[in-house]
Each structure stands twice: as structure tokens, then as C-alpha cells.
Amino acid sequence: PAWSARAAAEDKSPSESPSSKMENVTLHPLVVINISDHLTRVRANADAAAAPPRVFGAVLGTQAGRRVELANSFELKVAAAGSSGSAAIDMDYLRTRLEQYKKTFPSLDMLGWYSTSTAPAPDESDIAVHQQLCELNEALLYLALDPSGLVGGGGGTGDLPIGIFESEVVLVGETPTPRFARLGYKVDSIESERIAVDHVAHILPSGESSSASAFSQHLNGMHTAINMLTERIEIISRYVAAVQAGTVPFDHALLRQVKALCARLPALDSDAFRAEFVQDHNNSLLVTQLAVITQGAALTNELIDKFNVAYDRHSRRRGIF
Questions:
Q1: How is residue 155 annotated by DSSP?
Q2: d(C-alpha 321, C-alpha 303), whole Å
Q3: pTM to 2 decimals?
Q4: What's the CA gap between 81 and 93, in Å, rounded?
Q5: Each residue of 224-255: pLDDT tens digit?
Q6: For residue 26, with 0-12 CB atoms within 10 Å meaning exposed, 13-18 middle and 19 or more buried, which class applies?
Q7: Would you say 241 and 258 are in contact if contact means Cβ atoms under 8 Å apart?
């Protein structure tokens, strides 16, 4: 992908700094969803013939020592273009939004900012924006998303077209020069974010759901879960076979986990399992039958109400005449 090829030349693109201030950076899917939504709305309102506009925003999260967790984000308002062509951030708007977020999410602080860019590496305009935002926090991270990587699917490697950078000052000759150094990161999510990502994955570009009904969506989820379980079982089986063949060295801790997993499986050929399975099957059929009976009773009640209304009107007309 584009961001993977940007570290080829050290003099032109940032490289991962061995003396990084951040030991572990975790990125939540909510940040990626917010950036994609921001970019989509701006593109929809922009002129189709013009170049895609850049979007800017603040990234919120928590920091414990050298561990950073990027959990949320919001948009930034660009007031005007500076003399160097870089964006000028509306700092008053930013401070107001930060105060509002602080009241709702007191544990989140502004740890960075994001932007969309198709440039091969962060340039002088990005450094200028970074210096503006450093008024609030001197150790901000920069998250850059490449929109062309979204269209291309990450170059087929499965990597997100996202780069996370930290600022540092290096001596070029005798002049201190700011630059960005690339950081490694991992993607992690909580249960609510996994539900949101799954919901977004089922939305078509037309805005309609890709599932015909809630039942079919449930079946698709079950099918995906079974396929994932099958793949993981095959991985464990291949690993055990490779260990037995001697092509893979023994990992006693991992083998103990496999043994513990196998010990948790029930004996599927026991009489108790058959009895419990038949009972669950009968209960499922009974619930289905009760649902059908309830639906039939509701339809019958509706028919009786309509008949009574029609009969009462007919009786009143006969009495009048």
C-alpha cells in the first residue's frame, strides 16, 4: 500500500524511530469510522470536478506512561489558509469542543490530530498544522489516512491505509529541524465498537441493508461464526500434526492450552447429551408452534372485530328504516 512504500527513502519519508516516546499505540475502530464518515460527507458536498478536499480532526484517548490508546475523534474547523498554504485551525472552536467532550468523557484527553493526505509523507504543511495544535499539547500524535488506499483496499495486503507519527526534532547540519517519525500500532475494539463495525459492514452504498431480514442476518452471523470456528480448529489440527511430525518445535505452554480446550469439550456420544439435545430440539419446536398459534389467534381476533363492526352498522341501518 501507499503508506508501506513511503519509508523507502529515509531522507524523504519518516521511519520508525528506535527511540520512540511511545511504547504501545492502540487504535480503536471508532476513530477510523469517524474519519471515513467525515471524509465521505465532505466529498459529497464538494464539487465533483475539484480535487478531493482534506479533512482535519482531533483524536482523543488515554495515556498511561508510554502506552497510548486512541479511542475517539471529532472534526476540526479550518478557518482559512495560511500564508504558506497550510490549513489554519480555528483554535477557539477546538477549545470549545474539548471542553464539551471533557464534561461527557472526563477520562479522554486530546492526544493527537488526524488528516487525510495522498502525499508520500508528511510535509511542511503538516508540520505547520502540528505546531498550531501544540499550543494545547506538546506531545501530539499525527494520524494520516490515505483515501486512495481505501479505494484500493490497502494494496491487497489487508493493512489499513493509516500511518501514525510522532514529532521529533533532529539536527540537520547545525539547525534543529522538526520532523515526523512513524510509530507502530495495533487495532483493538470493545464490544460496542464490534457491533457498530458489523452494522456498517451490512450497509450497502445505497443506504439499504444487505440482509433481506433480521433472520437472514442472524443466519449470516451464525454462518460466519461457524466458518471462523472451523478455520481455527483446522489451524490447531495442523499445528498438532506438525508437532507430531517434528517440523515444528514443541511449545509446552501452547500444547497445554490445546489439551485444556479439548478437555472442555462434552462427550457427544453419551446418553445424557442425547437426552438434553432432544429436549432442546422439542423446546425449539414448541416455541415455534406457540408463535404460530399466537399469530393465528391474533388474526382470528382481528377478523371477529371487523365482523362485529360491520354487523353493528347493518343492525343500526335496519332499525332506522
A1: G
A2: 28
A3: 0.55
A4: 16
A5: 999 999 999 999 999 999 999 989 888 888 89
A6: middle
A7: no
